[in-house]
Every structure is written in structure tokens, then in C-alpha cells.
Amino acid sequence: MQRDGIFAGDNPFQIARDWLAEAETGELNDPNAVALATVDPSGLPNVRMVLLKDITDTGFWFYTNYESAKGQEIAASGKAAMVLHWKSLRRQVRIRGDVVKEDGPEADAYFASRSLKSRLGAWASHQSQPLESRTKLMAEVAKVTSRKGANPARPPFWGGFRIVPVEIEFWADGAFRLHDRFVWRRETHENAWEIQRLSP
């Protein structure tokens, strides 16, 4: 099966990194924005936008409040899916797989790299929980600011998740809606990838 041009390569993570790097030069806003899909305990899907923070050869990384709806749904199922879509490139990458919680040094380092206001906001927000008013939220931020100071540590309820994919699909727009699609699949993380071209 011939895969050349933007689809060439033996490492799907590197292809994804290359596409993201290309998007960073042309996509106007948040080229690392991804739609993250999870399911609730009844099996009802949930999807929301989050920011992808890294693509390594071990998976796709993002950070959130573990007590949020997505955090709880991931904890319950251990699985998630995401899609990166770049309108400027007319391309997308779809990822499905198991999720690993990352609350060690990488999470500490990323939290420390965020702006002070974002770090304080992470402490103040009970993400996904009912909120009486914005005034109440800002009051909580003020309280946290006085308690935590100028260098708050990462909250124990906030950190990283890494999707370890068993499926990665690369999609590029084609003339007359005859798109190019290649999917990389493996049964487990230890298995070798199998690659197929899919009909548009």
C-alpha cells in the first residue's frame, strides 16, 4: 500500500506531530484544540473541547480537573477518543484508546508553567459542579489567592491524562469529497500497528 507525501512514515505519533507543527504555522486560533469524547455511566457520550499539550511516542497528553465530568468519566471507563481538526489544512486526526492518569513530575512541571491566574483558577473552580454566580466564583479566587500566594503547588485533584491509542486515523480532504484516509490499528499497546486505507 502506497503512503507518500503527508501520509509517509513508520511512526504515527511523528506524523501527528508533523501535522500539528504545520497547523501551528497557519491555524489562527488554538491549533492544539481537540474535541475529547467520553461516556457517562449510562453510556451516553459527552464531548468537549480541550487543549492537547503534547504528543509523545506513548500517547496524546492533556490536563484537567480529575473531579470534572470528563475526569470522572475517564476514571470510570478508562477509555476516551479525540479528534484534531484543522480547517486551514483541511485535515484531521482521530484517536481512540485507553487512558492513563499522569499526576507525577510531568503534571507538576506543566502546572508550574501556567500563568499564576490559571493556577489560582484551577484551585478555585469546582469544575462541572453547579455554580451560584460568577461573583461567588471570583470570591473563591480571591480566597485562594490569599491562601496560596504567588506560587501555588498543583492541586491533588488536577493533573494529566494520556490517551494511549489503539487506533489513529489520518484524514485529508480530497477533490469531489474523495478524501484520503489511512487508519493505524493495533489490538493492544504491545502489538505492532496495522495500516489500512479507508474509503472516503
Automatic annotation (TrEMBL):
Keyword Amino-acid biosynthesis recorded: no
Record function comment: Catalyzes the oxidation of either pyridoxine 5'-phosphate (PNP) or pyridoxamine 5'-phosphate (PMP) into pyridoxal 5'-phosphate (PLP).
Recorded superkingdom: Bacteria
Pfam families xrefs: PNP_phzG_C (PF10590), PNPOx_N (PF01243)
Transmembrane stretches, start-end: none
This protein's encoding gene: pdxH
Subunit note: Homodimer.
Family to which the UniProt record says this protein belongs: Belongs to the pyridoxamine 5'-phosphate oxidase family.
EC number: 1.4.3.5
GO MF annotations, alphabetized: FMN binding; pyridoxamine phosphate oxidase activity
High-level lineage: Bacteria, Pseudomonadati, Pseudomonadota, Alphaproteobacteria, Rhodobacterales
Listed name of the protein: Pyridoxine/pyridoxamine 5'-phosphate oxidase
